[in-house]
Design goal:
The protein has 19 helices and 21 strands. It is an alpha/beta fold and about 500 residues long.
Length: about 500
């Protein structure tokens, strides 16, 4: 019996090699792996003794040889295969142990050169693994060091089954397919993607199972292909995150990190119920809470800056399920961690370019709504114009609509949300809801922003009744002229942004 071992990750190699030797396997190996095994005082031979050819091209060519692949791929129940093995003096391999160059880790390092990255594209490894996995009826192939222990126990007890080998083969093709996707992604990243991809490549590794999904009867897990973002956040305090916790934490962290000042986002059911930017974090939190203090109870808070002590003191006065931030001051963490039922997450924001949604029979793919807004792109369509000192507030209000489910109406002032109308089947309901929530906070500087156009002037009537002086909307309705005329009639400043921010 023969085993071929060629690995980058040498974890657990000593134990599996000792077991193979004790069971009278001949071990063949390559390069650094061969030296490692010999240093363990375990007998091993170079594959050059089989191929009668040196490893060449700085190790790019080692195992790529008919005497290696013939020994891996041969079907010994096939008489023709047996005849050819005898003719070419090829002996079969029974066990293949291989893992791949760390391509994924190398591309994550910003200091890696293109030459280093290219050299970490493994060729012989995937080829050998795939060959062995194809022939799982006879050959055992191991790509994961975590499998060494149970595999060795099966060998010793002589209980290794066909299903065991099939399971190992599955892991090989699972690993190599992800490996190829990551290489493809890297190579494609060197080019500007003008169109959406012809083939959608999704490769994510499971981080862990979740207790359940949106409801207790639904199984769920969380996956990632990076080490950043909410999916890879570190739980510093509190019980394990749920499926819904992750969804809401993502909404909170994403909305907070869209803005540059200290920004605090309070989320309930993936909708912003409070959002505020300020050069003072405590003020930003207090203003965010004003947006809807009732809905904030049991919600998720997202920060784009380190949570400060004074802010933590205020947070501790209200029950929240999760706080997510890039860091916490030592004192802030001590204050918040005294609350038993709060989860404290540490996360590095990952700015994603694309998003996916499953539908029956397929996947929807699109760019994320990350575009930076510019006032210069807007049209000021009414006789009344807003003062230039309102422009920062206008930009905040308009950007805030991105984080509210359609139909979305946002009432904002001083870079803070005062009231929200979200997810209503018609826009006038959203207008009424947003204004009713903001009623006690409204001033003449309050701004009403709509994520899509007004199909009729009726919403303008309601805005006027609440003394709204400034309205932002995309424009584009068949009744735009009627809407503009109604705004002019009331002396309202109306701006067309020429862009929609639907979020379904």
């Amino acid at each position: 019996m023969r085993a071929l071992i060629s690995v980058y990750d040498k974890t657990g190699l000593d134990k599996i090699c000792k077991v193979l030797t004790s069971l009278n396997y001949e071990i063949f190996s390559t390069g650094g792996t061969l030296n490692h095994i010999k240093n363990l005082h375990i007998k091993a031979q170079s594959i050059s003794e089989i191929t009668e050819f040196d490893e060449i091209l700085d190790g790019r060519v080692k195992t790529l040889h008919p005497k290696i692949y013939g020994g891996i791929l041969a079907n010994i129940s096939n008489s023709k295969h047996l005849e050819e093995l005898r003719k070419y003096k090829i002996e079969p391999f029974d066990v293949i142990i291989n893992n791949l160059y760390p391509f994924e880790k190398v591309i994550e390092d910003p200091n890696s050169s293109e030459d280093e990255i290219i050299e970490n594209i493994d060729i012989g490894g995937p080829s050998m693994l795939r060959a062995a996995a194809k022939n799982f009826h006879r050959v055992s192939v191991l790509v994961d060091p975590n499998d060494y222990k149970w595999f060795a126990e099966k060998l010793i007890s002589k209980t290794l089954s066909l299903q065991d080998r099939k399971k190992l083969a599955f892991k090989v093709f699972d690993r190599t397919s992800k490996y190829d996707v990551n290489i493809s992604r890297y190579l494609n990243s060197n080019f500007d993607e003008k169109d959406i991809p012809e083939i959608l490549k999704i490769s994510q590794n499971k981080l862990f199972n979740l207790r359940y999904g949106e409801n207790p009867h639904q199984k769920s897990g969380i996956y990632s292909n990076t080490n950043e973002g909410v999916a890879n956040s570190k739980l510093l305090h509190g019980k394990a995150m749920s499926y819904l916790n992750f969804l809401d934490a993502d909404a909170a962290f994403s909305s907070a990190n869209f803005f540059s000042d200290h920004t605090v986002s309070i989320i309930k059911h993936t909708n912003a119920c409070g959002l505020s930017s300020n050069n003072d974090q405590l003020t930003a939190y207090q203003n965010a809470l004003k947006g809807d203090p009732i809905s904030a109870f049991g919600g998720i808070i997202g920060f784009n800056t380190e949570v400060q002590t004074d802010t933590a003191k205020e947070i501790s006065k209200t029950f929240y399920d999760v706080v997510i931030a890039p860091s916490y001051s030592d004192q802030a963490f001590l204050i918040l961690s005294k609350k038993k039922n709060i989860r404290l997450l540490l996360s590095k924001f990952s700015k994603e370019k694309y998003e996916y949604r499953t539908i029956n029979g397929g996947i929807l793919f699109q760019e994320k709504d990350n575009q930076i807004e510019k006032v210069s792109d807007w049209d000021f369509v009414t006789k009344s114009k807003p003062n230039i000192d309102l422009y920062d507030d206008l930009l905040f209000a308009w950007n805030a609509t991105k984080f509210v489910k359609s139909n979305a109406i946002v009432i904002a002032e001083g870079k803070s949300i005062l009231g929200i109308g979200s997810g209503q089947p018609n826009r006038i309901n959203s207008v009424n809801l947003a204004l009713s929530r903001a009623k006690q906070l409204l001033t003449e500087k309050s701004i009403l922003a709509s994520d899509a156009f007004f199909p009729f002037p009726d919403s303008i009537d309601i805005a006027y009744e609440h003394n709204i002086k400034t309205i932002l909307q995309p424009g584009g309705s068949l009744k735009d002229n009627e809407v503009i005329q109604r705004a002019n009639q009331y002396g309202i400043s109306m701006i067309f942004t020429n862009k929609r921010h639907f979020s379904h």
